[in-house]
Sequence to fold (179 residues):
Amino acid sequence: MRKETLAPKARAPEFVSGENFSYLGQNYRLRIIRDAAEPLHFDGDHFWLAEDARSEAEVHFRRWYIRTGRGWLSERTAALARRTGTVAARIEVRDLGFHWGACGKNGVLFFNWRLLQLPVRLVDYVIVHELVHLQEPHHSREFWQAIDRALPMWRQLKDALRSDGARFLVFGMDALRSL
Ligand SMILES: [Zn+2]
Fold:
């Protein structure tokens, strides 16, 4: 599933105190600190980035999103699988170029870690989309009918992903190129 329809990214991360980063559609402020036990820490309220880790900040954030989001995406995929009637053998969170998600061989679903910046309802659409691909590989009539049964609101979510998704992305197209 491609994200080609997103508007160009509005900003690139600067990694300065007070800057907002989104996780599942919620904004969390960044604080830069001098002495830290780990390069990037999240306390449920703020991200804490060590000053001497700023030059590698994108790498630390990427690692954080993958580590934190993997379990969440796993559980969410299992929950939504009850609606699609398909089951993913496992999921992987990684860089996926311009794709939000992909359906691989042997029942493996891949998700772009940047997806984790989006609100849950938009992530749900991407998960359901890939879950249905386990059974319907192409965007056939049957595919959209299955989407409709699993997620009746899908049209609205698909449009919102296109029109609204970009504003949650601190790590978007530009970040893709710089990693
Ligand atoms: Zn698709």
Observations:
- Confidence is low (pLDDT under 50) at residues 173-179.
